[in-house]
Amino acid sequence: MEFSSEVITIDVKGHVATLWLDRPDARNALGSAFWRDLPRAATALDRDQSIRVLVIAAKGPHFTVGLDLKEFGGNFIAGGTDSSKATSNAKSYEAIRTMQQAVTSIADLKIPVIAAVHGYCIGGGVDLISACDVRLCSSDATFSVREAKVAIVADLGTLQRLPRIVSAGHVAELAYTGKDIGAGRAAEIGLVNSVCGEGAEDVLKAANELADEIAANSPVAVRGTKAVLGANDGRTVAEGLDFVAKWNTMYLHSNDLREAMTAFVERRPPVFNGD
Question: Which residue has the higher pLDDT, 84 or 13?
């Protein structure tokens, strides 16, 4: 895979890729390089048909402390610019949209995405994991929709995606207060699927085990399942059923299905090629 970045690293083992937030000295604060390179990483992952599952993890003691306020903080302070207010507002809008699209590039991946969280997952970190399909964390994880505490409305996807993950009341509490919650509370409200061990090594191990379990299935079926689940948004049950009927009309007669049936008859595990 051709991809390089100063703040993101991608490792591939078998059919599972790991996208690392790789700025540990800054506690993986999300600066301009991250927002520029994340969509590039997503494009590289999408092009590699051998990859069946993505794990997002982080190097260092924390997943991420969120937006790099040292880099972006000056942009939030009024004055100090020769640009007109209209020009300044337009630049702010474009910057927000660029960061939104970076997060959306992860949500739009055709393969399942698993977040493996340890330490702090603050602000933009919650935006990022909300775009993932499955979230795991270690017992030392701390989550916060922190924006209200710094006088910002969360604008990178948390307020749009989190209500599809946890109930409206929990979203409101987290977003209005900006409070920190620990791993236990995150699991209780459904923000994470489970709490896996005590630190980064434990949760990464659990994420890789889950990724391997998914990757062992037919890539055609897994990608189709993700597409059908996503297509349910905004559709009635009847419309969703019609969508999956059309999907299977197109993709049911795959070589993977033939292999599954042959393996069943021969009483052996199937080996799927994704075609």
Answer: 13
CA distances, 86 to each of 80, 81, 89, 151, 218 (Å):
15, 12, 5, 21, 51
Q: Dihedral through CA 112, CA 118, CA 123, CA 125, nearest 10?
A: -30
Please say whether the structural domain 8-215 has been given the CATH code 3.40.640.10. Answer: no
Report residue 4's pLDDT band, with 50, 70 and 90 as the boundaries: very high
Nearest alpha-carbon partner for 64 in 29, 113, 38: 29
Torsion-angle region of residue 103: left (phi > 0), alpha (psi -120 to 50) or beta? alpha
pLDDT at 262 (0 to 100): 86
What does the alpha-carbon distance between residue 138 and residue 157 come to, in Å, rounded to a whole number?
Answer: 23
H or E, element range at 58:
strand 53-58
Over residues 257-268, mean pLDDT: 84
Contact 130, 186 (CB under 8 A): no
- Which residues, 6+ apart, have CB-to-CB distance to 205 below 8 Å? 196, 197
| pLDDT given for residue 93 in this prediction | 92
**pLDDT confidence of residue 80:** 47
Q: What share of the chain is helix, strand, coil (3-state, %, to 5)?
A: 50, 15, 35
> Which residues, including other chains, have CB under 8 Å from residue 39's CB and lie 6 or more apart?
101, 102, 105
The label of the residue with tokens 């078998």 reads: 14
C-alpha span between 231 and 44 (Å, rounded)? 24
